[in-house]
Specification:
By secondary structure, the protein is mainly alpha-helical. It is built from six helices and four strands, in the order αβαβββαααα.
Length: 184
């Protein structure tokens, strides 16, 4: 019997990347309800809906073509249907497949679970269709700081600096604890 893997530690890096993503998403548009879902499904015209990356019919998620961490927003032109094998849930057993990579680079790359590495046919055609979707709805990502007033941008940069200091303090405290207790 194969036993499950031992749970991994939640690292400060993971925790602070989640905070950074929450900050970026807080300053991003979020206009994606039932009407937008229907427009996406009509654009890709598959019945049943399928993953835009690999064609699997078990769509489990909506994915940001341009990741939130790279300025992506939850709007038409940036949200597509995807399967769980392409967009790896946080608790998944595999490496983060698409992650922050540009979707076309990831699709043509050798990352675990990328369409190319899984032998998906017509990856170039799928890339072209996603690019047409983005263009059709006129989506253009923008840097988070460009969305803010000068005052807001300065405040956000100050908060990020404070978070960096807090992260360093936490990491030092953990390192001291581990050294003291010989817990690696």
């Amino acid at each position: 019997m194969k036993l499950p893997r031992v749970p991994q530690r939640t690292t400060t890096g993971f925790a602070f990347s989640a905070v950074d993503r929450a900050l970026k998403e807080g300053f991003a548009r979020r206009r994606f309800g039932q009407a937008e879902i229907q427009r996406v499904l009509a654009f890709f015209a598959h019945d049943p809906p399928e993953c835009v990356y690999c064609g699997e019919s078990r769509v489990r998620r909506w994915d940001h073509v341009v990741p939130v961490t790279k300025g992506g927003e939850t709007v038409l032109g940036n949200i597509v249907p995807a399967c769980a094998r392409c967009i790896v849930p946080a608790c998944a057993r595999c490496d983060d497949s698409k992650g922050d990579l540009p979707f076309d680079e990831w699709m043509l790359g050798d990352a675990r679970f990328s369409p190319k590495s899984r032998g998906v046919v017509d990856v170039e055609g799928r890339i072209a269709r996603i690019q047409a979707y983005v263009q059709h709805f006129g989506y253009t990502p923008s840097d988070v700081l460009a969305r803010l007033t000068e005052e807001e941008a300065k405040k956000l940069q100050s908060i990020r600096a404070d978070l960096g200091s807090v992260r360093a303090d936490i990491e030092d405290l953990i390192a001291d604890y581990r050294a003291r207790t010989d817990d690696r």
